[in-house]
């Protein structure tokens, strides 16, 4: 019986040592990779801002506002040129077929869509993943130059004016929902009224 107790104690001791060592290694790896990951995210954001906002001379990544709509936070990156507003980009997301779809949408001063960049998604390769280009200028579902001012952007299957991605209506709806929400956040931070059928109930918190 004493031998059994001794073995059990040794096993527990070994497990404790392994747990402590593993935890330490994970913490070390996390600390080592934290910096490079943050830097990579900053570079991705900067590239996205340059893609969706035509022209600016400030750093929108450092001139932001947080807009809360129905419990969800939207980051608004404000662009300026020569001290004058040059529009803004809004980070938004919506649930797609395979998970959350995250997008950065650019707007000019009139609230028209200048461009967008798909930041992350879990959609089916070759189908839902086409959202990366489908709604861009020249694409079948081109939304550039449009504005949800007169009502949310919707797919033609739902009575709207946007061609959905072939065989990916759910992804297309999610994408347009994210764009509509981005527009509502953009309007709210600019102190302008939001269409009655757009997302409502926003509160603003400036990060500057």
Give the topology.
Elements: H1 2-52, E1 64-69, E2 72-81, E3 84-95, E4 100-107, E5 113-120, H2 131-134, H3 169-189, E6 202-206
Antiparallel strand pairs: 1-2, 1-6, 2-3, 3-4, 4-5
Account of the protein in words:
The protein is an alpha+beta fold and about 210 residues long. The chain has helices at about 1-50, 130-135, 170-190; strands at about 65-70, 70-80, 85-95, 100-105, 115-120, 200-205. The chain has a 6-stranded antiparallel sheet with strand order 5-4-3-2-1-6, with helices on both faces. The longest helix is centred in the N-terminal third of the chain and has 51 residues, at about 1-50. The radius of gyration is 23 Å and the shape is elongated. Mean pLDDT is about 80; it is low at about 200-208.
Count of beta strands: 6
Give, in order, the helices and strands.
HEEEEEHHE
Average pLDDT figure: 80
Measured as a percent range, the helix fraction is 25-40%
The residue ranges in which pLDDT falls below 50 over 5 or more consecutive positions are 200-208
Rg on CA atoms, Å? 23 Å
Main beta sheet strand tally, sense and closure? 6 strands, antiparallel
> How are the strands of the largest sheet arranged?
5-4-3-2-1-6
Class derived from helix and strand content: alpha+beta
- Span between termini: 68 Å
Tell me, what's the shape?
elongated
Share of β-strand residues: 15-25%
- Number of distinct helices: 3
């Amino acid at each position: 019986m004493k031998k059994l107790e001794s073995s059990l104690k040794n096993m527990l001791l070994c497990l404790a040592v392994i747990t402590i060592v593993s935890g330490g290694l994970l913490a070390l790896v996390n600390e080592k990779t934290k910096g490079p990951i943050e830097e990579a995210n900053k570079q991705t954001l900067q590239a996205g801002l340059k893609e969706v906002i035509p022209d600016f001379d400030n750093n929108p990544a450092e001139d932001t506002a947080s807009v809360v709509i129905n419990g969800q936070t939207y980051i608004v990156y404000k662009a300026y040129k020569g001290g004058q507003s040059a529009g803004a980009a809004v980070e938004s997301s919506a649930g797609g077929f395979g998970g959350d779809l995250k997008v950065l949408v650019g707007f000019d001063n009139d609230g028209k869509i200048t461009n967008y960049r798909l930041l992350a998604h879990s959609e089916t390769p070759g189908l839902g993943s086409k959202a990366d280009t489908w709604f861009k200028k020249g694409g079948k579902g081109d939304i550039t130059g449009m504005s949800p001012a007169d009502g949310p952007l919707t797919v033609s299957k739902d009575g709207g004016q946007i061609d959905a991605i072939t065989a990916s209506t759910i992804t297309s709806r999610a994408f347009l929902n994210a764009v509509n929400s981005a527009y509502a956040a953009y309007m709210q931070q600019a102190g302008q009224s939001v269409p009655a059928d757009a997302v409502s109930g926003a509160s603003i918190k400036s990060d500057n």
